[in-house]
Amino acid sequence: MLSVRLRCITSFCLFFTALNGKETSHVEFKDVGEQITIQCRYTESDQTSLTLKKGLDEESEVLHRVNNGKSTIATQFENRLEVNGEMPNTDILIKNLTSEDTGPYWCVYKRVISGKPEEKKGKGSMLLVVRDSTQPCEITNKSLILGSVVISGAVLLLIILAFFMWYIFKNKNSHTSKKPRHATTNDVYEDMRGTLRN
């Protein structure tokens, strides 16, 4: 069920990002341990660098490659990344995928025009979804439900106990606050009884 939701959400997000840009974007589903090749392409050859960025806001750099062939690779991808091809057409192979590799990847090209840097997205941007079948989701849901039931039951018992204590104290106070009724005596009757005995 989680896999279906994840696929729907990622497809929905990628659909709108694809409408937003001219580059070709697609979704790739891979399992943990597999590999993927990201093919970054650009039509103009005057690009000075290529940066493969990851994240919705392109917040992390996976690879930075300059025109002379020098590459800088992020530490989490250091032993798992291979770069093939010449600028601007570069194939980036990521091996031994982990669930942390899930996310959008962007091919961002940079060139300098009249002393001003200009960045443009190239073809090859994609959304990678790495499926991890080793994580059981149902166990945490059952413990969450069990905890909710126990807490709800305890709160209900406390409310019932508080109600009964209030009821007992209310009735106890109402009995003690009443003054005992004295029977009205008829003094005349008492006097007559006293004279009859004599």
TrEMBL record:
<dbReference type="InterPro" id="IPR013783">
    <property type="entry name" value="Ig-like_fold"/>
</dbReference>
<keyword id="KW-0812">Transmembrane</keyword>
<keyword id="KW-0732">Signal</keyword>
<dbReference type="GO" id="GO:0038023">
    <property type="term" value="F:signaling receptor activity"/>
</dbReference>
<dbReference type="InterPro" id="IPR013106">
    <property type="entry name" value="Ig_V-set"/>
</dbReference>
<dbReference type="Pfam" id="PF07686">
    <property type="entry name" value="V-set"/>
</dbReference>
<dbReference type="InterPro" id="IPR003599">
    <property type="entry name" value="Ig_sub"/>
</dbReference>
<keyword id="KW-0472">Membrane</keyword>
<keyword id="KW-1133">Transmembrane helix</keyword>
<feature type="transmembrane region" description="Helical">
    <location>
        <begin position="144"/>
        <end position="169"/>
    </location>
</feature>
<protein>
    <submittedName>
        <fullName>Uncharacterized protein si:rp71-81e14.2 isoform X2</fullName>
    </submittedName>
</protein>
<feature type="domain" description="Immunoglobulin">
    <location>
        <begin position="25"/>
        <end position="131"/>
    </location>
</feature>
<dbReference type="InterPro" id="IPR036179">
    <property type="entry name" value="Ig-like_dom_sf"/>
</dbReference>
<dbReference type="InterPro" id="IPR039090">
    <property type="entry name" value="CD7"/>
</dbReference>
<feature type="signal peptide">
    <location>
        <begin position="1"/>
        <end position="21"/>
    </location>
</feature>
<dbReference type="GO" id="GO:0002250">
    <property type="term" value="P:adaptive immune response"/>
</dbReference>
<dbReference type="GO" id="GO:0016020">
    <property type="term" value="C:membrane"/>
</dbReference>
